[in-house]
Amino acid sequence: MIEIGRVCYKIAGREAGKICVIVDIIDENYVLIDGLVKRRRANIKHLDLTPHKIQIQKGADTKTVIEELKKANLLSKEDLEYLEKKEKFGKKKKEVKKEKKETKEEKQKKTSKKKEVKNEK
Amino acid sequence: MEPNKRSRSWRRVYKRTPGGKLVIHFEKRKPKQAKCAICGKPLHGIPRERPYKMRNLAKSEKKVNRKYGGYLCSECAREKIKEEVRKVD
What we know:
The structure holds two protein chains of two kinds.
Chain A: E1 6-10, E2 19-25, E3 30-35, E4 40-43, E5 47-53, H1 62-71, H2 77-120
Antiparallel strand pairs in A: 1-2, 1-5, 2-3, 3-4
Chain B: E1 10-16, E2 22-28, H1 51-54, H2 74-88
Antiparallel strand pairs in B: 1-2
C-alpha cells in the first residue's frame, strides 16, 4: 500500500484534513509527502491511505504533483479555492518585496551623495 | 474580618510585611482546567484565568493551532477527522 504516487490524507497536526501524495520513501517509519501540504517528512501513523493512485516519478516537483491531482479529479471545490488564494497573495508579496528593494537602493544613493558633499567641504 | 470577606469564594493568603507583621490578603479563586468534550481528559495549551483576563489575550494564546483545538484532545480529534475523510470517498 505504501508506494510512490499513493494518495492519502493527513490526520494529525495543524494541516489535518488535507490531501497529500507520497513522493519518496525514507525509512520503514518515515515518508516524504507533497501536495496541498508543505513538502516535508512525515510519520506513517499520521496518514490515512486511500485506494487512489497517480503516476509520478520519484522526487517530483510540487507543480507536477498538483497538475496530476487536478487531472484525476481528486480535488474538491474548497481545495481549488485555496489554491487560487495562494496564487493571488503570492503575487502581492513578491511585488511588495520588489518595491522595498527599490526604496533601499534610492536611500543608499542619497546617503552616498551627502557624504561626497561633506568631504568636498 | 469584614462581613463581605467571610465567604469561601475569597481565598485567604498570609503575607509578612517588611515591618515584621503577619497580614491576610484576600484573592479571588481561579476556574478549573479545561477538559475534552468526549473523553474528559485535561486539555493542553489553555490557561486558567478569570473572564476579564481571558478577553484581553490573543487568540493563539487560548488554544492549540489544530482542528478542534481547545475542544477535543488529540486522539479524539484524529478519530473524528478519519470519519470525515472517509465519507468523501
